[in-house]
Amino acid sequence: MKNIELQERDEKLVDTFRALGNPVRLRILQVLAQRGTCICSDVVEKLPLAQSTVSQHLKVLKDAGLIAGQIEGQSVCYCIAPGSVDAFSANVERFTGSLAHAQDCCESNGACCAPESKCCDEGSACC
User: Does residue 126 lie within any of the structural domains?
Assistant: First the structure.
């Protein structure tokens, strides 16, 4: 597979979507949001998975910057990382905003590449 060069903010968005692309990780975030903070064993109790599997999912979420963890004795206490939700929301808004104008390029019949397309007339990247 060839590498596609992305800007750093787009790489961050890809990493976050990849982390969120698993139902277990979505559930972990929901558990953390409901409880505020949790130690790993609390999260394990809420899921029908082995502790090692939950720990791996927590690592993916942490590596994506969505959660933070602090060692407390022999346990790690996890929470939604400060600012992570706002940053993700802003990145998604920026990304979808960059796409929003393109949806107007396709006409109702889906013929966006037809020579008579309004975007083609304007020299848009739709063509």
Answer: no
User: Cα separation of 73 and 75, whole Å?
Assistant: 6
Same domain (yes/no): 99, 75: no
In three-state secondary structure terms, 67 is: strand
Query: Whole-prediction pTM value?
Result: 0.75
Which amino acid type is present at position 10? D
Tens-place pLDDT, residues 34-65: 988 788 888 898 999 999 999 999 999 999 99
For residues 68 and 59, what is the distance between their CA atoms, to the nearest angstrom? 10
Containing structural domain, residue 28: 8-80
Neighbouring C-beta atoms of residue 88, cutoff 10 Å: 20
